[in-house]
Amino acid sequence: MTSTYTSYRLIARDIPSSIERIASEPQIKRESEYYLSRISEIKSVDEFMADSRIYNYAMKAHGLEEMSYAKAFIRKVLTEGVDDEGAFANQLADSRYKDFAEAFNFARHGSTATIFTKAQQGTVDKYHRLTLEEEAGADNTGVRLALYFERTAPEISSVYTILADTALGDVVRTALGIPAELAGSDIDKQADLINSRLDIEDFKDPEKLSKFLDRFTALWELENPSAGTVDSSMLFSSSTGFGISPELMLELNNLKLGGR
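and the corresponding structure tokens:
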């Protein structure tokens, strides 16, 4: 079996080629072609949510697949948009919802919301990247975690973003050698510990991020030899990046960035 480090590096060294391979898979190609052929015809939130193939495709593309069932919640996100400071999406701790509302901004653009690149090819590109990560995780959870972290880490603005996301938290705890049991301890103490051992700003530096992920994949391999046998669905279904309950999200939103 190829090690976690080697498997991750084989994909990460040429992401465009890896994504091109994913995009050419028959089922992925069919769904993407349907999405691109249909999305510009959708003129309202109602139409968007009524077409299950379009809706589910878009939700997965934005890492929200696990929240597809919560249609009233998502409708509120889309209906209120992001222009008003008090809009629902702006009040949520997970910025993924704000990005979703920006991509499908019916509140601002009305019937022309789906003609923009973010709603069309931009969403397809996101879908292909998410699918790449999922397929990598089928063979080795550690590789999926590394790819997900590589994609999202540059946008992390606070340690609380990490603590709110199971997948991000697992990468950081593994790389820093923090016992998983500490995940259940006081959230502010966890934040202080992580802040004392890394600088969030380093994740904006590609070289430093690469070294951090080298460390993570090496340590992950030690804990999960050869294949990373952890159940990938368990890690990602509870992370903000891949789905979180509205109740927990609203609770996390009460945490101020940088501390209480």
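(Above: one complete record from the training split.) Residues 228-235, 237-260 have pLDDT under 50 and may be disordered.
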